[in-house]
UniProtKB/TrEMBL annotation:
Biological process (GO), any one: proteolysis
Protein name per the record: Isoaspartyl peptidase/L-asparaginase
GO molecular function: asparaginase activity; beta-aspartyl-peptidase activity
Active-site residues (renumbered): 165 (nucleophile)
Gene3D superfamilies: (Glycosyl)asparaginase
Amino acid sequence: MTARSFGPVIVVHGGAGKAATDVVEARRAGVRAAVMNGWQTLTAGGSAVEAVEQAVKMLEDDPAFNAGRGACLNRDGEIELDASIMDGRDLAAGAIGAVKRIANPVTLARAVMEAGGPILLVGEGAQQFAAVVGIQECAAEALVTERQHARWTALRQECAESVGTVGAVALDRAGHLAAATSTGGLPLKAPGRVGDSALIGCGTYADDQLGAAGCTGDGEAIIKLTLAKTALEFLREGEEPMEAARRAVRELTARTGAEVGIILLDRYGRIGVARNTAQMACAWIREGNIDPEIFD
């Protein structure tokens, strides 16, 4: 195909699964606001990395989503958070796992990336790094919503409204790609559990030579198939972006039976979105269309 001229594109998602009507509407509004936030960053000349961070931060601050404030509680009644970010320009990446009392884990993941040392920090090591780079901890209770605490107290494992992540992929005016993902993980998960959202190639991947992808759903299944990288390899084989996303979901479904969703961009800014779940809040904006398109 003939390469299109580069122009900004951003896609965000708010997690895959099934949710009550009021939650669905809140998530639609949330992804719309987040994609607009990321778009404004891109059109102001910001990088793809800056755009995905800003979009994901907005979703982390929104209690309708399973990330940051509003994340689900683990077996011990605590919130532990995972996040990652990747720059397709040079394959720089940063990730954090099982962190507590951090309101915006994606910003901590970006700090890990920019430090240029280890790609993944978890638990106490990640907390110590946050202090070194000046990211302040918040009170643990500041992240807990009444809805999630009630679910944990009642031991209701109706995880459809909590399973999933939030994420974003973007292409900037310079033709560079980035991806970011953030999550609270599974309701009642084992303390210390780290899922796909913190693992580069599984929940998040970006490479200017291929594309950018973000995944949501059953983290263990996503890890088994390194789903984000697998979907982008389908682009290398010549698949169109939408078919690459669908093929990745079909393959995971066939191999594991798990529920997942994926968003991706190819290096020309073409969009792919797929899921095997009842719903996935998703929105995107591309040059020439500044009205967020909603997919769910």
